Amino acid sequence: MDVLNTVAMRIFEIYNTDENIGPAPRGACSKPASQLPASWVSSCKSKGKMKRSGNRSEKIGGKTMKVSGKRIKGRKYGGPTPDYSK
After folding, report:
1. Cα(76)–Cα(74) distance, rounded to whole angstroms?
2. Using a CB cutoff of 8 Å and minimum separation of 24, what contacts does 47-52 make?
3. Which of 43, 63, 73, 86 shows the greatest Cβ crowding within 10 Å of its Cβ?
4. Are 50 and 44 in contact, with CB atoms under 8 Å apart?
5. pTM value?
6. Local confidence band at 7 (pLDDT 50, 70, 90 cut-offs)
7. Which DSSP string corresponds to 52-72?
8. What's the rounded mean pLDDT across residues 64-86?
9. Alpha-carbon dihedral of residues 5, 7, 13, 18, nearest 10 degrees?
10. Nearest residue to 52 via CA among 22, 79, 86, 25
């Protein structure tokens, strides 16, 4: 198990690590969002396993509707919401 020695590291070394947590593991999406890293929470929302938050409107099925409180998959996982990462 690798542990960062933050006592001997400089600030820029801590923030410039190339670690990517990756997508949320299978059982992580059943936990509360406050106990998960932000990238896992967004991954769970994109997979349609967590309700979306915010006051955003998206065009779904030709109609513009609010996505807050709904479990809607992202485009990467076969859903109708757009992919803004491109």
Report:
1. 5
2. 47/23, 47/73, 47/74, 47/77, 48/72, 48/73, 48/74, 48/77, 48/79
3. 43
4. yes
5. 0.69
6. low
7. --SS-EEEETTEEEE-TT---
8. 88
9. 30
10. 79
> Token pair of 23, please?
């997508």
Tokens of residue 53, six digits: 């938050």
CA angle, 35 as apex, 34 and 37 as ends, to 5°? 90
What dihedral do alpha carbons 69, 78, 83, 62 form, nearest 10°?
-70
Instruction: Please count the CA atoms within 13 angstroms of the CA of 63 that sit on its side-chain side.
Output: 3
| Residue 36 amino acid letter | L
